[in-house]
Write a structure and sequence with these properties.
The chain has helices at residues 37-41, 46-53, 180-183, 194-202, 219-226, 239-243, 249-266, 320-335, 352-357, 368-383; strands spanning 8-10, 17-18, 22-25, 30-33, 59-64, 69-80, 91-95, 98-103, 109-114, 119-123, 128-132, 140-145, 151-159, 163-165, 173-178, 205-210, 232-236, 272-275, 290-293, 303-306, 341-344. By secondary structure, it is α+β, with helices and mostly antiparallel strands.
Length: 391
Amino acid sequence: MHTTEDWITTPLTGDLLRGALDLERTEHGLLPHRLPAAARAQNTDGQLAMAESQPSGVRLVLRTRATVLELDTLPTKRSYVGAPPRPEGVYELLVDGRPSGRGAVAGGNILTIDMTTGTTDVEHGPVGTLRFADLPEGDKDIEIWLPHNETTELVALRTDAPVEPAPDHGRRVWLHHGSSISHGSDAAGPTTTWPALAATLGGVELVNLGLAGSALLDPFTARAMRDTPADLISVKIGINVVNADLMRLRAFGPAVHGFLDTIRDGHPTAPLLVVSPILCPVHEDTPGPLAPDFSGVAEGRMSWVATGDPAERASGKLTLNVIRDELARIVAQRSAADPHLHYLDGRDLYGEADTAELPLPDGLHPDAATHRRMGERFAKLAFADQGAFSG
């Protein structure tokens, strides 16, 4: 039985974390960010601010003999007016790379979002504690993957034995950017988002810049990717540009070129994979903007509908099929001078045949089973022989 005198409190510092691009000291502790301060300073969008502060792919990585571990955190949980309650954020424990536990943290702040008015309200709550006990004896590598969709301030780490940073095993670093689908949408937990699954299967270290609602070709995101050390890079482009009805075809092509140019300024020869959107029936041939459909809320369902007019494609409005054609054209053009640039049609990860077996529950986001399928397929296509990330 441990008493308070048995615990060793280890300061929470950057050398114990992977997957974050910046760490902010708050009044409570340490807040991991997935965009650096310079990028955040240029952003005025609340959706992106929320998304980048949610630690998808961020994990504590330790070497220790401890058999008991406690982590105090202050989560910020989301509630949407008129929508079904969201599940608790999940923390996942790996011991020497093997899944060894799951948990959630009670308490925390509640961020209430009204999608019809765009307003938000925060109800402040207490710090909570995550506990993992009965860990194996002896030295071991411990990973605690933070909830992929719940802003998490790290407050304190206590163990019954000393802690040090886990060693660098020399794995290649994969830097990925995408939408809420890459962020994790409705995955079962942080280690089972499709990028996390693919990274495990590919034997690489993940830095996940999947930013829900915010894969919008922002120059500051491209600069963040330019400045982040990485061996392998991928960008999944399209769904958010259509969702937001952000731009027309005339602007889209140059924006993609500029985004890729900026990444190449920092990574001139790294394998760079451009991934087009997975199949999303509501937007295949119908432009945005996207709007929530609350008609099924009484049955616990919410879905999304495209509100654009397909006829507007003639004037340059974007759909997923238009974007796939343009991305394929751009990569074909650029790859003549850039042999390390590659293209992957997102429908090879989730396509027409998959929609019958695994339909998108809300018309937009993959569920847990689809995340697994996408992660396995990406690993086979990208990391296997002849793939963009092979070698």
